[in-house]
Amino acid sequence: MIPESFIQDLLARVDVVDVVGRYVQLRKGGANLLGLCPFHNEKSPSFTVSPTKQFYHCFGCGAHGSAITFLIEHTGASFPEAVRTLAGSVGLAVPEEDRRSPQQRAESARRKEEVSRHTQALDTAQSYYLKQLRASAPAIRYLKQRGLTGEIAAQFGLGWSGTDRQGLMQVFPRYDDPVLVESGLVIESEDGRRYDRFRERIMFPIRNARGALIGFGGRIIGKGEPKYLNSPETPVFSKGQELYGLWEARQAIRLEGQVIVVEGYMDVVGLAQLGIGNAVATLGTATTPDHVKKLLRASDKVIFSFDGDKAGRRAAWRALQACLPLLRDDITLRFLFLPDEHDPDSYVREFGAEAFRACMAEAPALSRFLLDELGQRHNLAEAEGRAACLHEAKPLIAMIPPCALRIQIERELARQVQLTPEEMTLIMAQQAKPQPYGAPADGAQPARAAEARAASAAEPRPAPQGAAGEQGAVAEDGTPSFEVPGYLDGDFDGALYDYEPIPDMGTEPPGGGNPPGQGQGWQPRKQGGGGGFGKGQGKGKGGWRRENEVGGVIEPRRPVPTLAKRLLQLLLSHPELVDTMGDQQLEVIDRGPHLGMVRDLIVLAQSSGARHLGALLEAADPESDIHLVLRSMSADVLGQEELPHPQAEWEDALHRIEFDSLRAEMAELAKGGLKEAADRERYQELSQRCAILKRA
């Protein structure tokens, strides 16, 4: 494990502008630099690099991170590889730190050695297959008949398995080595005899997202079954997770702005030969959610191409179901059905690449395919057919995360089955939250709750004892009474800070004014050009959205109220404030409700030494709440101008937190009637401190 202190030292030495600038042409745009995003296709630059905050952010696709993250995402390097690359560029040696238990280290070493042995065996076999292809006239003739050139064959690393039952014995002196069976290169029969898995087949090497060889696919060139044969499941290869051609197509996918999913290796290679290099294929299995996740990491536009026969439509329907839980508003999924007599390769050869691109542009969207398929399965001219259609559709729509696309599909389906949008919403709510047997009908419980709230509001509320008279007056029971200061007016049954709507965590409450529960007595000092923490301020953009996950909006485990978000933005925009923090200021923060995330950020920065947002992202645990907060706020921080007096803004915020905590404590004392001398003394102390804070 690489020590965190070294990572922070490395990020302090490298410049994210230099790292990104090696791959992206950047130009000056105010305090930041702009360029075309390398992670998605765009015509106008939305990719921004901040030299002061040392991170990048794309306002088009949401990609963001530090110099380390950029190398990982853009080059496919692992985290250690990216760190070593950057360290080498500034002349640093990477130290290693291992805090794992002896058992964990032993298991990790065993796993690493196993992967290494499998990779070496696969690489050796690939060299053998390449050599065999150069010497095989029938294999070369077959590739030429399929219209493939030597250049494309070399690009995809195509080979030939040979016809010998034990051909690999030529390159593996120990043909009985267990790794040959474990890696799927050799089959061992029940009687112990061994033979090569692949014979008389064109070999297609399968690489993972980093370009490492993990398995093979073989296409027989003569008669025999199966036509396509894949490596079995191994420690480094799983058919349900990998896509053929994704590594080779990565650049074309970025240039085209979309990825095409076809059914076979030859379709991928044949399309590349004809100038369509952004195609990938599943490995003889139905499309899985893991496939869809990888596709959406590669591009926000995916086109599935299937045969137009019944088998093709069944495969498309399974792919659609795998896509539903991953739908988002910022992606496009389409389904292309070619004529029965054509696959993508043959279609392009007959009609040309531009005709195929035109077909892709006109391919129905996922929503249209979903609704049309449901409509074809049921007689929509009858009430029973419409009800059956809705019955089949409900669990499918329930799989879609909450987003605008889901609402659009629900409304389209409502028109299709002759329901109003309100009726559809009610039916979908019943699907999501089935009522237990015997429970009241929908709407009964909310109505009763509303009636109860109205009745409660109509009842007179008793005033706190001693709260009505002048200061120093005596209540009916003889105890001294204190006047409650004006800044304690209000209802203290609620929290001082309410949670705001997700995903927009920076909005004003309806009607303007202070956020819920914030008193009228506090007026912070005003600084020119500052955002401040006063009433009616704090509008923000930001949203809780995490790309390249399961899609949809992901709410945080701990919602962030507005005040906390403003404090986080202030710290991230002015990281030098962290250097002035002491235990006393942390103690004040601890008094404020829902400010634990602010304390987490301060502790993270002080313990790791990270200051800029990019470095903080690297220092935070990827599964922690603070990491989610940092990711969600990256766009806000990038576009926020620096304040002229950040220290004054920070002190204002601390005064506000302390003021509200004192106010809450005074309210509790007032509710108790201030009968005890200690309570009255404490009340006076708090009142004096509040007065000082108001004058500060």
From the structure above, extract its key features.
696 residues; alpha+beta; DNA Primase, Chain A; DNA primase DNAg catalytic core, N-terminal domain; Dna Topoisomerase Vi A Subunit, Chain: A, domain 2; 4 domains; 4-stranded antiparallel beta sheet; magnesium
What does this entry look like structurally?
Its EC number is 2.7.7.101. It is globular and about 100 Å long. By secondary structure, the protein is α+β, with helices and mostly antiparallel strands. The strands form four sheets. Strands 1-2-3-4-5 form a five-stranded antiparallel β-sheet, with helices on both faces. A four-stranded antiparallel β-sheet has the order 6-9-10-11, with helices on one face. The longest helix has 33 residues, at 102-134. The protein folds into four domains: 4-90, Alpha-Beta Complex (DNA Primase, Chain A), CATH 3.90.580; 106-230, DNA primase, catalytic core, N-terminal domain (DNA primase DNAg catalytic core, N-terminal domain); 249-428, Dna Topoisomerase Vi A Subunit, Chain: A, domain 2 (3-Layer(aba) Sandwich), CATH 3.40.1360; 562-637 and 645-694, DNAb Helicase, Chain A. The relative contact order is 0.07.
